[in-house]
Amino acid sequence: MNLDKLLDQISKLDLESNKKISKYLDKFKNAGKVVKEKSIKELELKKLKVEFAKKKFNLGAYISTKYLADKILDFSYDEEFKLMMEEIVSLKKYIDSIESS
Known about the structure:
Shape: rod-shaped
Helix content: over 70%
Number of helices: 2
Order of helices and strands: HH
Number of strands: 0
Radius of gyration: 30 Å
Distance between the termini: 63 Å
């Protein structure tokens, strides 16, 4: 009789500790998912910011080349300039939307 009671108590203790361990593991898994999602978002954001900086640099190089070669200061009719600006503006809007979400 005493052995049965002891085994019942041990099995109950084991189940209760397993539940606690299970809860902690679930919390740990959920926290890991949140950290992973934030990390992915941050990496994507950094990548986009680098791409944004490259596009701005290329635009600056384009402007300086045009100025040095042809003394052009007005780019209102330059289609390549307009295309570069559209890409920069749309990328900036995308970065801002990711940062605000």
